[in-house]
Specification:
Shape: globular
Number of strands: 0
Order of helices and strands: HHHHHHHHHHHHHHHH
Structural class: mainly alpha
Number of helices: 16
Radius of gyration: 22 Å
Largest sheet: none
Length: about 450
């Protein structure tokens, strides 16, 4: 027993020497490990859920489900007000220096999200008939849209809770929340599809989302712990105006792109049919296999970058950016190539007729590699407080995606995949030089040099 304790003590000392507590490498490795684990388990359950649901519903009904979820995702962008990203950035900056302010930030972000998402959900419920019958010419989606309105609320609020946990660097909590989402999804969504078809599947999404929301809220409360509710005068001042100044451009950047994503899906559904949209959705879900490692790194990257910027630490910021960028690219590439090679076999898991979308998945695999670079660039923009630039780039993305889809709409799902790849390439060409200038300018400012000079 004494020998085991000695070995454990030696290993702990070695770990602290190689990876000092609180150091960048340890935070990045530990955070990425939890994120990879949680994201991997959740996406494995998510893929299983999608495969079973697609086989239960059939290709056309699965395309209708995809259209309903795309509509919900688009409106969730509005309902969430961009407060997930905002919570991550502001909480990451204040968590180490002002716990009282951190608690106020969390409470304020959640209150704003509850109110805004409820308003958007009510509007969807009231407009379900117009949206399904007049715009999409698919009256069978009316009930589904009404049910989906509840999903806007649970998704928006849970997104803000996850943003707060990321800002607090509780990556273990994020992993547990992801696993809960995966388990709840496989438990409720296929069951709903089996008993009540399309509408039942959407009810399953709502129930799974509510279960995840409840569990994530518990984790967030435990993370906040006994942080003082009182503090300095600065901490007591309501941060609502400051949050809105940052989150409005974040919201506008989402609004600039989300309707474009919805319109392109709707265009494919109306011109090529829900079956083609189902092919694209299945290929996009296969793409999660490619992106799960990169998304895990991304979940760690933004709070670390924001924390470095908030601590005025130029050297750490540059090291973090280099490490996360390399991790993004390598993690995506190593998975994208085999997924593209085995695309026909993967898609047949959704059903025999889905094998026709193998070309779509191959195109999206290469788009994922390019987008891994774009994700790193996007973190630079938000961590260094360039929200207006982020909004402008989102508007540009919307224009490029819509133009590409309109150009190739007659090719159905393949056309939408080509538009997605074109967008990724064009965006990388434009974003990379811009991000390079932003980092160079920020690192030349005295406030980002002060920590390094005083060290």
């Amino acid at each position: 027993m004494a020998r085991k304790r000695a070995i454990a003590s030696t290993l702990a000392a070695l770990r602290n020497r190689v990876l000092p507590a609180g150091g960048l490498r340890r935070r990045l490795i530990e955070g990425s490990a939890w994120s990879v684990f949680g994201t991997g388990v959740a996406q494995a359950f998510g893929l299983l859920t999608n495969v079973v649901t697609a086989r239960l519903l059939g290709r056309d009904a699965y395309g209708e489900l995809g259209m309903a979820l795309t509509t919900v995702n688009t409106l969730t962008v509005v309902g969430a007000l961009g407060l997930g990203v905002t919570a991550t950035r502001f909480i990451a900056e204040s968590r180490a220096t002002d716990p009282a302010r951190t608690r106020i930030l969390v409470d304020t972000c959640l209150r704003l999200t509850w109110v805004s998402s409820a308003i958007v959900a009510i509007l969807l419920g009231l407009g379900a008939n117009v949206l399904s019958t007049d715009l999409l010419k698919a009256g069978q989606l009316r009930t589904g849209f009404i049910v989906s309105s509840l999903l806007i609320v649970v998704s928006s609020v849970n997104g803000t809770q996850l943003g707060a946990l990321a800002g607090l660097e509780n990556f273990e909590g994020l992993a547990k929340s992801s696993i809960c989402r995966g388990l709840a999804g496989i438990a409720f969504i296929p069951a709903g599809a089996h008993f009540w078809g399309l509408d039942g599947a959407l009810v399953g999404y709502v129930v799974a989302g509510a279960a995840t929301l409840t569990y994530t809220g518990r984790i967030l409360r435990e993370t906040m712990g006994d942080a003082a509710s009182t503090g300095s005068a600065k901490a007591q001042k309501s941060p609502t105006r400051e949050l809105l100044r940052f989150t409005v451009p974040v919201l506008l950047s989402g609004i600039a792109f989300a309707p474009a994503a919805w319109w392109t899906n709707a265009l494919i559904a109306k011109r090529a049919g829900f079956g083609e949209l189902a092919l694209f959705n299945a290929a996009s879900q296969c793409q999660t296999i490619i992106l799960f490692l990169a998304n895990a790194v991304s979940a760690v990257g933004l709070p670390l970058l924001s924390n470095s910027a908030g601590m005025l630490d130029r050297a750490t910021y540059v090291r973090t950016l280099r490490a996360t960028g390399l991790a993004h690219l390598s993690a995506t590439t190593v998975v994208a190539i085999p997924v593209a090679i085995f695309a026909p076999y993967l898609l047949r898991l959704w059903g025999p007729t889905f094998g026709a979308g193998s070309t779509v998945l191959m195109i999206l695999s290469f788009a994922a590699i390019v987008n891994s670079i774009n994700n790193t660039v996007g973190q630079v923009i938000w961590s260094l407080n360039r929200p207006m630039l982020g909004m402008s780039l989102s508007l540009f993305r919307a224009v490029v995606l819509c133009a590409g889809t309109y150009l190739w709409v007659d090719r159905g799902a393949t056309g939408l995949a080509l538009a997605t790849l074109s967008l990724a390439v064009v965006l990388a060409i434009i974003q990379i030089p811009i991000a390079w200038r932003i980092v160079a300018r920020a690192c030349s400012q005295p406030n980002l040099q002060s920590r390094e000079q005083n060290a």
